Amino acid sequence: MHTWTLLLLGLVTLAAALPEKLHQLAGEADEDEEGVDYEDEPKRPYSFSYAASRYYNGAPDREHQEQRGEDGITRGVFRYVDPRHKVQEVVYFADEGGFHVEASNLPQETLAVQNARLKHQELFEKIREEHARIGAERALLESENTDDEKYQ
C-alpha cells in the first residue's frame, strides 16, 4: 500500500511539473521556426524508391521511385495494379512551372463530358447575365433614392 501511495505521489508531482516543461519546449520550437521561409531554402537532391504488396510475401502490386537532382527538378514514376488487374503507370516531374504528369490512365474527355461542359458554360453565362441585370437594377434604384433625398 505504501508503494502505491509513493507511486501516485510521484505521478502527481510529474504531472504538476509537466505543463511548465512542455511550455518551455514549445517556446524553444517557436524560436527555431520563427522567420524561416522554406520556399527560399535550396532544393537539396534526394532519391527514394519502394515496392509493396497487399499480401504477405506476395508479388509487389505497387512501386514508387522519385529523385530530385542538383537542378532542383523532381522526377518520379509510380506504378500500381488497378481494380481491373491492369498495371497503370504515372510519370511526373515538378519544376518552377508546376507539376507535370504523363499517365496511362488520365481521364479522357468523352462525348458525355463535352456535352456536360457545354451545358455548364451555357448555364453559367445565363446566370452571369441575370446577375448583371440585377446589379444594374440595384444601381438604378440606389441612384433614384439618392436623387430623391437631394430634393427633400
TrEMBL record:
Entries under InterPro entries matching the protein? Cuticle_Struct_Prot, Insect_cuticle
Does the entry feature the keyword Signal, yes or no?
yes
Q: Which GO terms describe its cellular component?
A: chitin-based extracellular matrix
Signal peptide as annotated in the record: 1-17
GO MF: structural constituent of chitin-based larval cuticle
* Superkingdom: Eukaryota
Q: Which UniProt keywords apply?
A: Cuticle, Signal
Supply the name of the protein.
Uncharacterized protein
